[in-house]
Design a protein that fits this description.
The structure is a homohexamer. Chain A contains eight helices and ten strands. Chain A is α/β, with parallel strands linked by helices. In chain A, strands 2-1-4-5 form a four-stranded parallel β-sheet, with helices on both faces. Chain A has a four-stranded parallel β-sheet with strand order 7-6-8-9, sandwiched between helices. In chain A, helix 2 runs parallel beside helix 3 (about 85-90), helix 4 (about 95-110) crosses helix 5 (about 120-130) and helix 6 (about 155-175) packs across helix 7. The two termini of chain A are about 25 Å apart. At the C-D interface, strand 3, helix 2, helix 3, helix 5 and strand 10 of C face strand 3, helix 2, helix 3, helix 5 and strand 10 of D. Strand 3 (about 40) of chain E pairs antiparallel with strand 10 of chain F, so a sheet runs across the interface.
Chain lengths: ~240, ~240, ~240, ~240, ~240, ~240
C-alpha cells in the first residue's frame, strides 16, 4: 500500500524526519508513505483565506498521487483543505485529519473538545463539525493562542498549554475526549495524556493526522472509496490559469 | 453607494447587459453597481473543484473592491465561493446568493426548496444550509439537470424545467417557498412564479443574486459589517504564487 | 412605496419624532412611512399575556393597511405579535423585528445573542428562535432588567447596560454578533457598537426594527409575498366581538 | 378536584353532553369537571388568526377559573390557544391537548403523526412541535380536509377519513403512533384504532383532549405547577379594552 | 386497575412501607399496587453494567405481571432498565421513571435539569434524553455524588444536597424545572421544592417514579398500549439459560 | 496484537471458517484473532429482548478477554449489545459494528442508509444512530425481511435482496452510502457493490464487522482507550446470580 501525505503549505521543514517516522509507523512496515508539500500557497493555515490559497495545489497533488499509483491520500492539515474537491477528481480514498479525528473521537466517549492553535480558526472548526454531522458530540473548540509555525519552538511549553486548555474543556465544557486541533501537534498526544493524568484527568487524546492515516489504510484495505454520488467527477470545462 | 459584483468565472458573457440592468435596479437609482469577473478559474461552477479554483481570485477581487472604495461586495454564484475567506480580508460587507436567499426564504414560509442546475452540487448545497444554520427550514435541494452554461439556451424550456421541479418540491418534499439555486437563473423568478400559478401553486420564488444585492445594500445602509470575531484578518505570513 | 408600521401598544409617545425620522431614513427618500398604534391592548409588551392582548388589533391594523394601499407592514415589537396571523389575512408582506433581525444576524457571524429588556421574555424569545429555525445560530438571550417603558429614561445608562450585557454574551456565551432585543432600543445600535469598541470588542449590533423595515422594502422591491401555503386566508366563519 | 375546561370558540353546541360524560370519566368519579366556552372570538379554530382572536378571552377564562377555586384548567383545542399566556396569569396548572398528546405519543413509540382537520393548520402544528421540543419524534402532520364544524356531520365518514390518512402516515411517513389533531375528534380514538386494525395496522391512537385532562389531573395530584421562571406573572401595566 | 412495580435490584429494603403508601396514593384508592424486586442482579443501579445485569429478570417480571393479570408495569429505576425489551414481550403498558418524568418536565417549563446520584450515570442519562427525543428541553444532568444505597442515610442532608445542586442547575445551566434523577429519592420532591423556595427559587420538582405511575394509570384508563410497530413481539427462537 | 471477537449468541456455527479468515485478514498477518460465543443467551439477535439476554454474558466475555491479555474486543452484532457496559468493566478498547460502521459511513458520503434483517430492529437502529450522534448523516434504515439465521441459506438471494433494498435507499431516501446492518452479512459487501454497479449505482458498501475490527486495531495502535469519564468502572457492590 502506498499512501501519499499532502502537506498543504509551502513551509518545507514543517514535517520533520521524526514526523515521517511516525507516519510510517502509522501505516505499518510493509507499506510506503511519502510526503509532499505545495509550491504555491501559504506558509501555514490559520484562516479561511489560507485554506483557500492552499486548496488549488492540494487538488493538483491529490490528482498527481492517483496518477503516480498511490492507493490513498491524506491531507496534512486539521482544516481539511481540498478534502471534498480532491475527492471529486480521483477514485482513491482521500482522508482529512479534521473529519477522521472527530468521528474517531465521537466513538471514544460522550463528548469531545478540539484544542487548536488560534481563536481565528474556531468558527471554521465549528463549521467543519456541522458539515461532518458530529455537532451533537462536540463539547467545544478551544485555542492555545500559539501560531502554527511557533508550535515547534518549545514542545514542553506546547504540551503544557494543551494540557491547560484540555482541563478547561473537561471542567467547563464537559469534554470526555480531547482532539488535538492541528497536525503541527503530531507526536504530542502521549505527552498531553500524561499531563492530564498528572492533574487527575483520564481522557483519551487523539492525534488527528494519525487518525487520518489509519482511516486511509482502513479504506484501502476494505476496498472502499468515497461515494461518487457525493463526489462526482467535475464536469469537463475550460479552466484558466491552473495546471490541474 | 457603490456595490461590486464579483462573477467568479472566466466566462465573459455570462452576465448580460440585461442582467446588469437588473442588478442596478436592485440597488436603486442613485447607486453604482459594477461587475467584474475573474481571469484565472473555471468557466462555470458546478463542483467543489470549480469552487476551489475560483476562490483565490475571488478573494483578490474582494480586496480590490475595498481598495477601490466600494461599499460592499456581492459574489455572483449560489455556491458562495470565497464568501468566508473574502470577509476575512476586508472590512466591508460581503454577501453571497446562497446565504442571502436561504435566510430570506426562511422568512417567507414554513419550508423552502432550492432548485439548482445539476445533481453534482446537491451535497454542496446541503452543506451550505448546514453551515448557515437553516437546515430545519430546508425541505430539499433538487436539480433540473442543465449545466450552468446551457441555462441561457432556451429560457422558456428553462422556466418550464424549473416549474416542473418546483412542483415536485412542493408536492413531494413539502416546500412552501422556492429558491432558484444558480445565479445564471437571474431574471426568471417571475416566469417561474407564473408557471407555478398556472398549475395552481402560489409560492414565492426567490432570485438569489437579487437577494444578495438587497442584503448588501441593507448592511451598508445599516452600517453593519461582518463580525471580525468570526472573520478576523488572516495572520500575516509568507504567501507564494498569489498576488493577493 | 408605502410602508405601515404598527406599534402594538396603546402608549402614544412610545414612538418619538426622532424614531419616525429613523424609520423614514430606513425606507429611503421617495417612500412613505406611516406609524399607527393600537387602541385596545397593553401599554407595553413584556409577556405572552401582553402579546395575546395586543394581537387582535394588530391583525386589524394589518388588514387596514392593505385596504389603505400600503405595500407592506412592519410590526414594531421584537416579540412579533400578530406576525403569522397577520400574514394570513393579507396578500402584502408583513415583517417582524424578531424574525428579520435574527436571520440578518445569522448572516453576520458565527453565533448571535439577543439582549432584551426583562427576564420575563427570555423563554418567549428562545421559542421565537426555534420557530424561525435559527436555534443553532443563537448563542443566548440575555436581559438588562429594565422595563420597556423605562428604556427612554436615561439613554446613556441604557447604552451602558446593553454594552455590559453584550460583553457577557460575547465572553460567556460565545456571541459574535449582538441583536438588540426590543424595538424600544431603536437608535442605540451605534452607541452600543462604540461602547463595545471602547472595551475592545468589535461586534456588529443589529437594530431589529430597522432590520424589519429593510426586509419589508426588499420584499416589496422583489415582488415577494409570504407563501399562501404557509399563511392561507383564514376560512370564513362567524367571529363575535371583533371588528376584523 | 375541580377541573375547568375552556372551549375557546363561540359555538355553543361544539361540546355535546356525551363529550362532557367523556371528560368526567377522564377525571374520575369524585371530581368535578365544568366546561365553559367564550363569548368573543371565532366559531372554530382553523388558523393563526382564529387562535389570536380566541386567546384574550381564553386568558380571562383561565384567570376566572383560578378565582372560582378550580384546581386546573384544560384548553379544549389542539392549537393550545392561550396556553403560555394563560400559565402566566395563574398559579394552577394549565394544560393543552397539543402539548399533552404530543409528549404522551412520544412515549408510545418510535415516531408519531398528527392527523388534523385542514391543510391550513399544518405549519401551525409543526411550529407547536418545535416549541414543545418533540420535533425529532414527529413523523408528519396530515389533514383530512374537513372543517372543524363539519366534523360531527357523519362520524363514520370521519372515522374512515382518519383511518385513511393514518394509514398514509404509517406507510409513507413512518408513523408508529397516531395523534388525533383536533379536539372535535374526541371520542373517535377507539373507532380509528379499530379501523386501523381492520386494515392490519396495530397503532395506538391518542385522543388529545383526554390526554390533556389526564395530564392536568396528574399535575394536581403531584402538586406541580408550571415553572414561574418560564411563566412569570405579567408586569402590572395599563391594559385598554379588555376586562382581564 | 392493578399496577405492578418492578424494582430492578436485589436489595430487599430499598422500597420502604412509606414508599408503598406513596405508590398507592399515586394510583388512587380503588386500585391495587404491588411491588416486586428481582432475585438475580445488582444491589443497586449506578452504571450501564448494573443495568445490563438487572434487565433479564426485569423482563421476566414484566411478562409475569401480564400473566398475573396486571394492567400495567412500572420500572422502579430512573435508568429505565428493560423498558424497551419489556414492552416487546407484553401487550400491556410499561412505563419508566426516566422517560415519564422527562416528558412531564418538558411540559412544565422552558428547560429542565436532572439531578442524580453519581457522575457515573451522567452519560447514560444524556443518552436516555437523546433516545426519548427531549434533548432540546434538557438543560443539564448533574449529580450529588451520593451512591443509591446511601440515599436513605440522612434525608435532611440528601434534601440539602439536592437543593444545592438544583440551584446550580438553575443559575448556571438555565434550568426552570428540576427532575429528581433516582427513584431512591421518592418522597423528597416537596422538601426540595421548599428548600429551593427558601433560597428564593420557585421551580417545580418532579418525582420520577410517581410520574411513571401516573403515566401508567393514564395509559390504562385511555386503553393505550405501546406501539407494536415499535415494540413487536420478539421472534421465537432458542434461548439458553434464562427462564423467560 | 490480540483481538477477541465476541459473538453474542449461542448459535455455534454462526461464524464460519471463512468468516474467521476474513476477520484475520482484517487485522493483518502478525496479529491474532480469536472468536468466542456465549453459552447463555439467544440463538440470534433480532429484538431489544434478544439484546438484553445476550448482554450479561457478553460483558463477562469482555472482562475475560482483558484478563486473558487481549488488546481489544469486538462485539459481533450490529446492535452492539454490551458495548457501553463492556467498556465500563475493562481498560482496553471495545468496539461495535453499529457504531464503527455508522461513523465510517459518515465519512464516505453525504448520507448513508443501513440495510438490515427485519423490521423489528428498525427503531433499535434509529436509536443507535441517535446515541452515536450521527442522526443527521443517516438517510434511513431499511430491512430485507430475512431472519438472521436464514441469511446463509442462499447467498445469491441474499445479495439480490440487499441490492434491491439498497436501490430503494438510494432512490427514495437519498442514500449515497450503504451499510450492511447485520454481521451475518459479513463477506457480502463486494457482491452488493457489484450488484449495485450492474444497475448503474456506484455506492460504497460498508461491512460493519470489518469496520469494527479495523477500528479496534486503530485504537490499539494509537494506544487509545475509551474515556473513563464516560465509562467509569462500575461501583463495587453485591451482584447476585452472575459470575461476572
Amino acid at each position: 500500500m502506498k499512501i501519499r501525505i499532502v502537506t498543504p503549505i509551502v513551509t518545507q521543514d514543517f514535517v520533520t524526519p521524526e514526523n515521517i517516522r511516525e507516519y510510517s509507523d502509522a501505516v505499518g512496515p510493509k507499506h510506503e508513505v511519502s510526503v509532499v508539500s505545495i509550491e504555491r500557497g501559504p506558509a501555514s493555515i490559520e484562516s479561511e483565506y489560507d485554506e483557500a490559497l492552499a486548496t488549488p495545489e492540494v487538488i493538483g497533488r491529490i490528482r498527481e498521487a492517483e496518477q503516480e499509483g498511490f492507493d490513498a491520500v491524506v491531507i496534512n492539515c486539521f482544516g481539511d483543505p481540498g478534502l471534498k474537491a480532491g475527492r471529486e477528481v480521483v477514485n482513491i480514498p482521500v482522508t482529512g485529519p479534521g473529519e477522521a479525528s472527530m468521528h474517531l473521537a465521537a466513538t471514544l466517549g460522550h463528548r469531545f473538545s478540539v484544542v487548536t492553535v488560534l481563536d481565528n480558526v474556531l468558527p471554521m472548526l465549528y463549521d467543519e463539525a456541522a458539515v461532518y454531522g458530529v455537532e451533537s458530540k462536540l463539547a467545544s473548540v478551544r485555542s492555545i493562542d500559539v501560531p502554527v509555525l511557533d508550535l515547534h519552538l518549545d514542545l514542553d511549553d506546547l504540551a503544557a498549554a494543551l494540557v491547560n486548555e484540555s482541563v478547561k474543556a473537561i471542567e467547563d465544557d464537559g469534554a470526555h475526549v480531547i482532539v488535538l486541533g492541528c497536525t503541527g501537534m503530531t507526536g504530542l498526544s502521549q505527552a498531553v495524556t500524561e499531563g492530564l493524568a498528572e492533574q487527575g484527568y483520564e481522557a483519551p487524546v487523539v492525534d488527528p493526522l494519525i487518525a487520518a492515516i489509519k482511516l486511509a489504510r482502513t479504506l484501502v484495505e476494505m476496498d472502499l472509496r468515497h461515494s461518487k454520488k457525493t463526489y462526482p467527477y467535475p464536469p469537463k470545462k475550460e479552466i484558466v490559469g491552473y495546471n490541474v
